[in-house]
Amino acid sequence: MTKFITGAAVRIPLIIWSILVVFPLIWMFVGAFKSNAEIFSSPWSMPETYNFGNFVSAWVDFSIGSSFLNTIFVTVLGTVLCLAFSIPTTYALERLRFKGSEVLFNVYLASMMIPAVLGWIPLFFLLMNMNLLDNLFALSAVYAISQVPFTIFILSSFMGSVPKELEEAAAVDGMSPYGVLFKIVTPMVKTGIITASILNAITFWNEYFMALILLQTESKNTLGVQMDLLSTNAQYESAWGALFAGLVIAVVPVIIFYAIFQRHIVKGMTEGAVKG
Amino acid sequence: MVQSKKQKYLFLTFCLLPTFLLFVIFTVYPMVNGIYLSLFDWSGMSANREFVGFENYIRMFNDEIIGKAIYNDYFFVVTKVIGIMILSLFFAVALTQLKVKEAPFYRVVFFFPNIMSVVVIGILWQFIYEPDIGLVNGFLTSVGLESWTRPWLGSMEWALPSLVVPAIWAGIGLFMLLLMGGIMNIPKSQYESAEIDGASEWQQFWKITVPLIWPQIKTSMIYIVITSLNGSFVLVQIMTNGGPGNETEVMGSYLYQKAFEDFQFGYGATIGVLILILSLVTVLIMQFILKREKVEY
Prior knowledge:
The structure holds two protein chains of two kinds. By secondary structure, chain A is mainly α. Chain A has helices at 2-31, 36-41, 53-61, 64-95, 101-111, 117-129, 136-159, 164-172, 177-188, 190-206, 209-214, 223-237, 240-275. Helix content of chain A is 80%, strand content 0%. Chain A is globular and about 75 Å long. Chain B has helices spanning 5-37, 55-61, 64-97, 103-111, 118-128, 135-142, 159-184, 188-196, 201-212, 214-239, 251-261, 265-289, and strands at 40-42, 49-51. Chain B is globular and about 75 Å long. Chain B: The chain crosses the membrane at residues 9-32, 74-96, 108-128, 158-180, 221-240, 265-290. Chain B: It holds the Pfam family BPD_transp_1.
């Protein structure tokens, strides 16, 4: 009997929290198919007819479509650039001991503790002077650099476990250090690269404030900025259905991504905790 | 290894220099320059940049909204640390030690809000609090508590607590996973010997689990503080824009307003320095308070 009671006592909070997480999401999905009138008259019910008009309206009239593509662009480019910056640096810091390698590693780590907010104003003017405002390439590069310290942090623990003998054998066979890095070491730390890239991609996909500051024309906007605009407009035009549809469009790729990589994310997080 | 010194240095340069240069240009320089800018009165046009020394700082001390923003930021910090730590610790223990069969399901569901963007979370919760069609008022009405309904985000006293709820909602999963990692690493033998000694589950929790995952608890709390001081304003900006009045203004949203809406970039930079200083001081104090003898197992 006590076992039953403790079992129930544990499960009730778990069930309540699941409902608190899942119910708003279901409500959002259902709302995306409702007309404005229906959202107001019966906010709790299922839609009478499933119409996709809200999605069309969000995608076309509120430019969620173009911002969706812009977001894919900065997410992919940012993730790739971040790896291109981080992999050689991590290798040099972790495997090639040299004077100052530890200092440099700590500089990168320490920068994670400093609030980025402080740098936004100068960053804005720096890009303005370089003529790189409102430029999706520049935004991707800024994203990539901003995640370099975190990526180095993740990759270094994986690189530390690559056996040194492999590198030495390849070098004896006459392979250049560049070859050793890209053909031997990089494939060996695939798991680390995937973990870091998943987390970076999610960060870039969701980023809002740097995009808000560094982009200027509506055609360049990323999803976060465009959704915020849509949210403000929806209140004036009472385009609630379109706003729900926009939210769904912004969330669905993340849900698919999460469904595919869920194991990696959870594993990466819990293992990272063990090391930390 | 057949490799000349020159080749070695060339390779090191190839590995380190491009990244380091970009890091200095896009991360280090803006931060340092942010501190420097706080000494100027500047509307953004390079021509009229006037050195004013510590005038911005003096202005900040007399700015009532700054006081409000600091209070609100720490309201976020304290409620988030307490709310997130209690819930995520409970969930972490429940899902690792209490033999819940559906644990993997909960783990996946609870982490889900962590991968959603703050914009989406903010807009969604704006809806949830919406006075006419929102879930909160709808729920209260349906259970007969109609007198409790109110325009949550438009209310002077309820706007700030209403913002904390989604912040906790969105944060639980990450810290639950971090703590689960720590708990799964505790050797089973610890609990077995405690059981033989007749320790209750409650005692085992306080005497074994908590001390052994203290490093994770400490890291989590410090991480919540840093991310809260530097990130809470995104939710504020989206859900209330600092309103009603300046009731929910936090330092970050005030910085954005001053710099990018009122074009007082010098003063904005000063608020940035304040955020930096308060973050560092708070973390230092926490390091000191949370210090504990390291427990080995």
